[in-house]
Structures are given as structure tokens and as C-alpha cells.
Specification:
It is a single chain. The strands form five sheets. Strands 1-2-3-4 form a four-stranded antiparallel β-sheet, with no helix packed on it. The chain has a four-stranded antiparallel β-sheet with strand order 5-6-7-8, with no helix packed on it. Strand 5 (62-69) and strand 6 (75-84) form a beta hairpin. It starts with 14 loop residues before the first strand and ends in a 16-residue tail after the last helix. It has one helix and 19 strands. It has 278 residues and is an all-beta fold. It has one helix at 256-262; strands spanning 15-17, 23-32, 35-42, 50-51, 62-69, 75-84, 87-94, 102-103, 123-125, 131-136, 145-150, 158-159, 170-175, 181-190, 193-200, 208-209, 225-227, 234-237, 248-251. Bound molecules: calcium ion (CA) (4 copies). The site of one calcium ion has 6 residues, from loops. One calcium ion (CA) binds at residues 111-113, 116, 137, 141-142.
Amino acid sequence: MVANGNATLTGSNPLQISADVLWVVYTADQDTDEVFEVYSRSIDGAGAPTKLNAPMVAGGDVTFSVVRVSPDATRVVYRADQDTDEVYEVYSRTIDGSGAPIKLNGPLVTNGDVCPGSLTDCVQISYDSRWVVYLADEDADTVNELYSRRIDGIGAPIKLNATLVNGGDVSQFQISADSTRVVYLADQDTDQVFELYSRPIDGSGTLVKLNTAGAGLQTLTGVPFLLSPDARWAVYRADQLRAAAMAMRLRVPSCTTRSRRRGALPIRCPRTTRYRWR
Ligand SMILES: [Ca+2]
Ligand SMILES: [Ca+2]
Ligand SMILES: [Ca+2]
Ligand SMILES: [Ca+2]
């Protein structure tokens, strides 16, 4: 450790152990004081720590709260202003440091960033460890949109949201437990009316609106929606009946067959009909 260096011990995930319990991943200003970088090391202390980020531009740092270890313990995904100071991008590297870091986001518009502002959970890895989903104002500054990319960098980033209304943003998302879909909250169709949408993680197929059209979700704080562990249900709270009826509403995230039949998007799923994910 360099003089005045510290391992980062604050934040939501200052230190992570891989699911196979073979690796510890941490951020520290270990090599240069006040330059925070991301390292992995064998949990039994064998060998030396491996720096996972590429050499940092002057002023560059890894964002310690946006470091993720893939569930299969093969890769680390991190956010950093690695290439341009104060331009935050998302990278993927093998956990053992082999190969080079791969930049996952596409070219950013001027003043664009991955995880602009103080977005939480803005970079997530799918449970099957194949995909990274992230929020960024990648194509238009201050317009937060949702993208997926293969964790190994193969292919291009895929924008998952539809064209946003003027003033619209994607604000939160979750990946389904079977890793096939992303459910996201956005004021996509009407500015400041936040609705819930579901899209296949690879961008294929139909975008589905899960709530009753025009009835925004009731809260943006805390957890505005949940996905069931069997990947069949999204649960959310909305004012879609009337103001007095603040009931929990169950809605199925996929009704693609019916959507295709009807043609135009977004489409409502009949409340009484149960569809499976596929
Ligand atoms: Ca320091
Ligand atoms: Ca910086
Ligand atoms: Ca921006
Ligand atoms: Ca808005």
C-alpha cells in the first residue's frame, strides 16, 4: 500500500467475495494515493493482488459503489472514468485479470455518462452471467436510457427502451430471475408519469407495458416494483383503479402473443389472463 492508501470500506459493497468463494474483489488507492482502482485476489492470500482496471487517465477513479462480480465468478464489471477524466464508462474484465478490460457502453455523447447523477443499481449483471444492463445518457445528454450488452463485449450495446417522450427517462430496472427479461420504470410515454415496461434482455421481441395505460406507479422511492423468483410476475403499486383503491396489482410481464396480434405498442395485457414468460 502506498503512503496514505486505503482499501475502500464504505459504501454498499466495499468488498466482495465471489460466489465460488475463491476471490475477493476490492477497491483501494493502493498504488497511487487518491487514485482508486479495483483489484482481485485469491481469498486464501496466495499470489499478489491483480489490478483489474486499465491504467487510469489523470484524475481517473473506479467508482467503488459500482463494482459487480458476475454470479459465475468469472468476471468483474466496474464503472470508472478510466479513459477520460469525469467521463464515467462501464468495463468488464476477467476476475483473474487475464485479457484486457472491455468497454461495454457505446460511444458517449458529450457529457454522457454511465450511471449519470446518483443512480443506484444502475449497472446489473444477469443471473446467468451473460449480460450487463446499465443506465446511461449515452445518446442524448441528461436523457437516461437503458442498454444491455453481452458481458464479454461481443456485439454492440442494445437500447432496450422505446423512444422517450420529451423529458422522459428510464429511472430503475431489474433483470428477471431467468435472465431473459428486463423490467424497467420510465416516464417513457408521458413525462412524469412513471410506468412499468418489460423487454427481452437481448432486445428481441416486443416491448410490453405492464401497468394499465396512463396509470402511473405510485412511488419512485424505495422499491416501486418487485419481480418474482420464478420470473413470471411483476408486482407493483399503482393508482390504476381509483385513488382510494391502492391495492397491490399483479401483472404478467409478458403477453407477446396478444401484443403481436393487436399490432401497435404499447399494449395492455388483460388482467384476468395469465400468460407465462414464454
Ligand atoms: Ca488516500
Ligand atoms: Ca475523475
Ligand atoms: Ca450527462
Ligand atoms: Ca421526466
